Amino acid sequence: MTELVVTLDLDGVTDKAGLMDRCARALHLPDWFGRNWDALADSLSDPTVWPADAVEQGLLIVVRNWRPYAKALPDEWETAQEVFSEAVDRTPALSVTVALGGSS
């Protein structure tokens, strides 16, 4: 069985609030999602809030169009990567891939 693939498209994201909104939308996070780094880490590590099919299949998040955000806010992008990495380390059924390309 293959993982459920969710695309996290950061095209046009210019700040942390935009990133959190995209995460909430792409992952169908509950309304009570706190839109902060701790809440994102908790949600990524908690299969009970993942899309339904991902609970049994596992979840692969593909982050696209991240370069402009990373360039504009390198400290925030570094924090985002740390959150993704820690969630993957804690959650065997989770994978996060940063797609290359899309630099134009």
Number of helices: 5
Q: What's the arrangement of strands in the largest beta sheet?
A: 1-2-3
Low-confidence stretches: none
Over the alpha carbons, how many angstroms does the gyration radius reach?
13 Å
Helix-strand string: EHHHEHHE
Structural class: alpha/beta
Tell me, briefly, the overall form.
globular
> Strand-residue fraction?
15-25%
The biggest sheet, with number of strands, parallel, antiparallel or mixed sense and barrel status, is: 3 strands, parallel
Write down the overall mean pLDDT.
92
Beta strands, count = 3
Distance between the termini: 35 Å
Q: What portion of residues is helical? A: 40-55%
Describe the fold and architecture:
This protein has 104 residues and is an alpha/beta fold. The chain is 47% helix and 16% strand. It is built from five helices and three strands; from the N terminus they run βαααβααβ. It has helices at residues 16-27, 37-44, 52-57, 67-72, 74-90, and strands spanning 4-9, 59-64, 94-98. The chain has a three-stranded parallel β-sheet. α2 packs parallel to α5 (74-90). The longest helix has 17 residues, at 74-90. The chain is globular. The termini are far apart. The mean pLDDT is 92.
